Fold:
Amino acid sequence: MAFNRARGWALAIGIAAAYQAAPAAATGIPVYCYNCQDASFNAAHSIIDAIRSQTEALLNGMDYVMRTEKTLDMISKQADQKIANAKALEPSLGAKPRSACGQSAAAGLRSATASASSKTVALLNKAAAGYNNQTRGLAPTESRREYVIRNIMERMDQPTYDAAKLVMQNEPISAANASGYQQQLTDTLMATNPFPVEMPSAEQIERIKKSGSQGERESLARQIALVKRQQVAQYPIMRAFEAITQRITPEGIQYLIEDIKPYLSDEDKARLAGKISPNQLDELLATYRVRSPRWTKAMIATPSPEAVAKESMLIAAEQLNQTFQSKRLLDDILRMLSMTEGRTASQAGLTSQ
Structure:
């Protein structure tokens, strides 16, 4: 009996417990776990930090790649520029040909000798004036005509006297031998004016100017005018004589001279051994390209368009210089033709003095 009662109480308590537990299972029971919340927060932050770290590493990697590519591109461009500069500046690549150095040295030589050239021409013209007035220095009683004839016989009748070579050819002459230089100048003047005007002595000229008769004064005036005209006619000859005077030391263009030596005669080589004349310098710069196999090979083989452009520029500059020289000679010819026309139109008595 007691056992059954105990079983009944147990059953009642179990039913009551089951009845009370049914609503709890349906609605849920709120549970608060502070440790779980911190763990979840820390886990989320760890994930975010990991993503941030990976993103930063990825950005750094991309930045490194871009910087590397930029550096490599810059190095490549620098290498290309160095190659271009080498072709433009390196002599072994044909960028600075021998001709460029020669033209540069020639420009210096021409600049240095330009002022000396005009002074030399002035001195030569003074010498021509002295030759044309040589009879002024004779004694009043000495025959002017006989003096001139004697000079012609003694000098021009010699087998070694070559008037055509003196006047027409451009044979260089050395100024080192003063006496020989003076003799060739006198020979050249004699070829262009073998019969200088027979001028009175200096004392007679002064007397005629002060107190001479009308006939004496007119005759003297005609003689003076003719002497001056002869000097004008000889001016191109004197300028040409200056141009063949060897007075330039060609130290800067020796290799250009060496380039064309195989194509020169022994006589030409001897002329280029020391100082050269302005004519020789002009001829050398105008013709050495077509005579030099080195220049031809350099222009054909050079990989540098800059070198070809520079060479073309130098050739054009030299052509301008040669054109100017031709223009100056043409001006001389035109002036001489004008003087000839004026002389022809002068009085017959003036030209017969």
In short: The first strand starts at residue 173 and ends at 174. The first helix runs from residue 2 to 27.
